[in-house]
Design a protein that fits this description.
Order of helices and strands: HHHHH
Length: 69
Amino acid sequence: MSWHQHVESWLDAPGIRLLPVRYEDMVADMLAILARVVDFLGWSAPAEAVAAAVEATRFERLRAKEEPH
């Protein structure tokens, strides 16, 4: 089975609620993607909290925390 067929099998599966998220979209606009995920999950989170989560988990920030160790 090809990767494309594998993905399509999940997207076409009946009774499964999915939110496809592409890596490229996360790189381009993580804030918007995370806001969509929060909404999809039915969670309530202020825009400021979503923005803070994105900022706190930026790759550069996490790498800087690991460097001393």
